[in-house]
Amino acid sequence: MRVGQPDGRTAAAIVILAVVLVWPAGRLAAQDSQFGIRGLGTPGKQESVRARSTGGAFAPFDAFSPLMDASLVDVRRVGGSVTGALSRRTVDIGGTQTPLRGTRFPALVIGGPIGRRLVIAGGFSTYLDRTFGISTSDTIVVRNDTVPITDAVTSDGAVADLRLAAAGRVNRWFAVGGGLHLLTGSTRVEATRTFGDTAYRNTTARDQVSYEGAGASVSALLDLGASLRVAGWFRADSKLRAQIRGKTAAENDLPNSYGAGILWRPGSQFALAGTATWRDWTASAPNGHNTFNWSLGTELGSPGSGFRLGARGGQMPFGAGSEAPTEVGLSAGIGKQFSAGRGRIDFGVERLERKGLGLSEQVWTFLLGLTVRP
After folding, report:
1. Is the separation of the CB atoms in 59 and 47 below 8 Å?
2. How far is 13 from 317, CA to CA, in rounded Å?
3. DSSP of 335-363, one letter per residue?
4. 159 within some domain
5. What CA–CA distance (Å, rounded) separates 265 from 224?
6. Which range of residues forms the domain containing residue 148?
7. Less crowded by CB within 10 Å, the N or C end of the chain?
8. Do residues 306 and 300 make contact, with C-beta atoms less than 8 angstroms apart?
């Protein structure tokens, strides 16, 4: 009997290399977006439910969205906010559709004032999603025989962004903020090679990959009168190091991020906002793309408790081909305060459409947020 017994680590390397080179030739199954498989992952949205329901447009002006630090100056007393998301997506690869789903808690912010002018906060958000599964089929030559094989890789985990931030007012119309970021997390990876000929033994390798990195952010808010507010921010991150059993397996540059936003609130029952964000992902991976993303949204009703609508669009950083995949979406939501304003519950729904070379995704995300100010 012919028995192939390749080393498990060798098999894992072969399978992972096959994923990178032949994707998306085989069948895919995943919880997170397929557009992150060929790169570092799928970037998370650093937005509360309130901000995400406006397409992300209110994120620079929402103290409980971990996107920008200067907005923390609006926190009047100690409070916290948590975001939950349930996604249902349909992936289309060459006309073959696959339904997928996933549950995430993508953001948590806790903060409060220290004295009259300073606010500090901490929490976490998702920096990169790394949960996916993919299988590819091929043939190889073993001892002059052509043998069909199926390679499968599953990854479960994410890179989290732990943030410690502070914000303060320089005067009544100008505020600044800054933050320190620690990138951490891990993924459990399993690689399996199955031979179509039972004379060969299947092989499986399992390992855990841990990640570490760091970053810093600065931001500012400028009030141009009673109804107009402008925001700007910059963030720089170090290399993302991937380690297996305490040894560095890979290092990738992370992007610098730039953003600007504007909020117009002509009265107490209406607000309109727009934002734009740039990120330079080209140095992060061979198939990385620079991205520009925009959002536009409105809130009707009292601040934090009204009806929200939003739209967003732009690019995603990783995908096959020379052009960046695109993303467009619509969102809506509503907030309701309780306990005399000491708490708020937010509901939202988001519809995204992503398109790239040979691949498209239709995503519904249902959002639930809870904000408490004891």
Report:
1. yes
2. 24
3. EEEETTTTEEEEEEEEEEEEEETTEEEEE
4. yes
5. 11
6. 8-372
7. N
8. yes
Among 363, 309, 312, which residue's Cα sits nearest to residue 333? 309
Residues 163, 151 contacting (CB under 8 angstroms): no
For residues 27 and 359, is the Cβ–Cβ distance under 8 A?
no
Q: Find, among 187, 226, 184, the residue nearest to 206 by Cα.
A: 187
Q: What is the CATH number of the domain that holds 161?
A: 2.40.160.60
DSSP code for 73: G
Q: Residue 259: is it exposed, middle or buried by C-beta count within 10 angstroms (0-12/13-18/19+)? A: buried
Average pLDDT over residues 255-272: 95
**For 113, left (φ over 0), alpha (ψ -120 to 50), or beta?**
beta
Residue where the block lists tokens 């669009």: 313
CA distance 254 to 252: 6
Residue 335 lies in a domain: yes
Which among 187, 185, 192, 124 has a CA at the least distance from the CA of 159? 185
Q: Which tens digits make up the pLDDT trace of 33-76?
A: 777 777 888 899 999 999 999 999 999 999 999 999 999 999 98
**Domain count across the chain:** 1
Using the 8-state DSSP alphabet, how is residue 282 labeled? Answer: T
Structural domain contains residue 2: no
The amino acid present at 310, given as its one-letter code, is G
Task: Tell me the DSSP string of 14-65.
Answer: HHHHHHHHHTTSSEEE-SS-GGGTTSS-EEP----HHHHHTTTTTGGG-TTS
Could you tell me the pTM of the whole model? 0.85
pLDDT one-digit tens code per residue, 171-194:
999 999 999 999 999 999 888 999
Nearby residues of 142 by Cβ (< 8 Å), 6 or more positions away = 2, 4, 200
Q: Do 20 and 37 form a contact (C-beta atoms < 8 A)?
A: no
Q: 13 is written with which tokens?
A: 């390397």
Place of tokens 């004891």: 374
Tokens of 3: 């028995």
Q: Residue 18 corresponds to which amino acid?
A: A
Q: For residue 299, what are its two tokens?
A: 């809130």
